[in-house]
Amino acid sequence: MSEVKKLKILYHHRVAAQDGQSVHIRELVAAFERLGHEIIFVGPSIRPTALGDENELLAFARRILPLFALELLELAYGVRVYFKLLAAYKRHKPDFLYERYNLFLPAGTWLKKKTGIPYFVEVNAPLSEERATYSGLHLRRIARYFERMTFQNADRLFPVSGALADIICTMGAPRSNITVLHNGITPSEYETADGSAIRAEFGLDNKIVLGFIGFIREWHRLDRIIQILKHHGTNPDLHLLVVGDGPAIDDCVKLAATLGVSHRVHCVGFKDRDAIPDHLAAMDIALQPAVTDYASPLKLFEYLIAGLATIGPNQPNIREILTHRETGLLFDPQNFEEAEKAIIELSQDTNLRNRLGKAGQKLIESQKYTWAHNAEEITILAVRAMDQP
Fold first, then answer.
1. Residues 6 or more apart from 254 whose CB is under 8 A from it?
2. Euclidean distance between CA atoms 260 and 230, whole angstroms
3. Span 190-203, pLDDT tens digits
4. What domains are defined for the chain?
5. Which residues contact 16 (CB under 8 A, 6 or more apart)?
6. Per-residue pLDDT tens for 115-159?
7. HSE on the CB side for 27, CA within 13 Å?
8. What sign for the dihedral angle of Cα 124, 129, 131, 137?
9. Burial class (CB in 10 A: 0-12, 13-18, 19+), 365
10. pLDDT lower than 70: segments of the chain
């Protein structure tokens, strides 16, 4: 954009944890601010500071309250935050409302109807469906009612994948109001990345390093990766570097010890965001294992900008980003043996690793998978919405 109109953005979210959601918020807000926009936040007042942590009060409530009571609390928050949004609107007179969609959250729609403010909604998942599938949803009809209300009243919806756009269209979202914006990266954060110190710390010099970053669950199948280290010996000398934590990590550590490959499995826990580029620079191959069929995984773009040969599941939302054997290697998500074969192939083929890594880096630039591009697109559409009578 040659010239950017400076805007006041009322930014509304309900994220109370330090995780991938908070990374998305922080990076997009930073991109808005680099464009000169002013951000007025409305969101949870108590949030943890350490990556991987969640609000302790909410964590306690989840342990002691039944599901329907937790959902009633969500709904109560959704009603209460409307008055916070209205107060912020009256005080700051923002140009548009940008909301990160969540369940039981009608406040944005109500503010639009009350004030006429342009209402933009970022959608990262079909949450009524996701919650019902993975953790349970008691007040399903109420959740879906507010979900449809949000999608039908937003002036612009920003799903993070084309696959997700198709889903929200079935919930009443007009196709004409949808702009797909994948998650992204800030390339400048990776320009000086150096993994040499990390390689030296863990004895990874002259080794082939397979890497994974993020929250580790059983379905990520890191146990199968550890099996590869055992059964394919040391030709090449393949190591696993895991940056993150989660419920599956202890079992992975125990399995590595049982198989006698603990010296080749390096679990370093969660790291601050500014340490991620150097850890990625210490890797050669990156693994994007199981993922929902509508997500736009943050780690995938981090792998690509780091120039890593990337392995991911062959499903529509991943094919929106990666092309098999051109910018990554894809495997049948129902057949993890294909992922294992891809790991072995990349570990043994330096030329293929280098070719895929360079192609992935170029993809970030050619497809504009950056937070700066996303902020610019949102700004253009916001100005257009403000100019409409």
1. none
2. 8
3. 999 999 999 999 99
4. 8-184+370-387 (3.40.50.2000), 189-366 (3.40.50.2000)
5. 44, 46, 47, 54, 55, 58
6. 999 999 999 999 999 999 888 899 999 999 999 999 999 999 999
7. 23
8. positive
9. exposed
10. 1-4, 17-20, 45-62, 389
| CA of residue 192 relative to chain centroid, distance | 23
pTM value is 0.91
Buried/exposed code over 45-68 (b: 16+ C-beta within 10 A; e: otherwise) = eeebeebeeebeeeeeeeeeeeee
> Between vectors from CA 198 to CA 284 and to CA 218, what angle results, nearest 5°?
60
Determine the Cα–Cα distance for residues 351 and 285; give it in Å rounded to an integer. Answer: 13
* Strand ranges (E), the chain: 8-12, 38-42, 96-100, 119-123, 156-159, 208-215, 238-245, 265-267, 285-287, 309-313, 329-331
What's the pLDDT score for residue 60?
A: 62
Burial class of residue 4 in the structure, from the number of CB atoms within 10 Å of its CB (0-12 exposed, 13-18 middle, 19+ buried): middle
- Reading the block at residue 329, the tokens are 């290697």
